[in-house]
Design goal:
Elements (H helix, E strand, L loop, with lengths): L9 H15 L7 H19 L2 H8 L3 H8 L2 H15 L3 H8 L3 H15 L10 H4 L7 H27 L9 H20 L4 H11 L8
Helix pairs in contact: 2-3, 2-5, 6-7, 7-10, 7-11, 9-10, 10-11
Length: about 220
């Protein structure tokens, strides 16, 4: 057989060339951002466990090989979905905590915007981070979302602590309990939105939740 400068037979060279071509991949015949958005909506609507790879390929409009090549396996895709959901839809709370001048104002805005976000008619209702691992049998998925929820509560408590330091909350305020209360209200609003509660009903709930706040010093 003919050899090429000590690099192997012609057959071996052709095999290596095909392997490199496969690694580089062909140009994608789909828009990755559009496909990712459809995956977000699927996991948001049905949760991690109930959304199969075949469900994903159907709603994303791509084949399984394209899904694996572009996003990895289902678990990897879900991790990216959660990150993108946070950036596209779930960042209203973070913005409220960062932008409002008082802790009370931040929480009030957070609850008010949750009422609007969780009932938006163009999207699945509720919050993906709260609901996507319900009845999930994949422990690391469940734990990752639990960690995100707990981190959100910790951020709220930290903002309340800053409020005490600034003199806008009484020194004896139980920030841990108040932050947990806020987290419970947000999670409850998410579930009620999925059960059909309207924006106006959730706004009324948010206003009522704020009545437990201690008065300004």
């Amino acid at each position: 057989m003919v050899r090429s400068e000590g690099t192997g037979t012609d057959t071996e060279i052709e095999a290596k060339t095909r392997a490199v071509t496969r690694q580089r991949g062909r140009p994608r015949s789909f828009d990755r951002e559009t496909a990712l958005e459809k995956a977000i909506l699927a996991f948001w609507e049905h949760g991690y466990e109930a959304t199969s790879v075949s469900d994903l390929t159907r709603v994303m409009g791509i084949g399984a090989p394209s899904l694996y090549a572009a996003f990895g396996d289902k678990r990897s895709l879900f991790e990216e979905v959660v990150r993108e959901y946070g950036a596209r839809y779930g960042s209203f709370g973070e913005r409220a905590l960062a932008e409002e001048p008082t802790a009370r104002g931040a929480v009030e805005r957070m609850l008010r915007e949750a009422a609007a976000e969780y009932t938006d008619p163009g999207r699945p209702h509720g919050c993906l981070v709260i609901h996507a691992a319900t009845n999930c049998t994949t422990p690391d998925v469940e734990e990752s979302l639990r960690a995100r929820r707990n981190a959100n509560i910790a951020a709220i408590q930290s903002r309340m602590g800053a409020g005490i330091a600034a003199g806008e909350l009484p020194a004896g305020t139980d920030t841990a309990a108040l932050a947990r209360h806020t987290g419970a209200i947000i999670q409850g609003m998410s579930q009620q939105a999925r059960d059909g509660a309207t924006k106006q009903e959730l706004e009324a709930l948010a206003a009522l939740a704020m009545t437990v706040w201690p008065p300004m010093p």
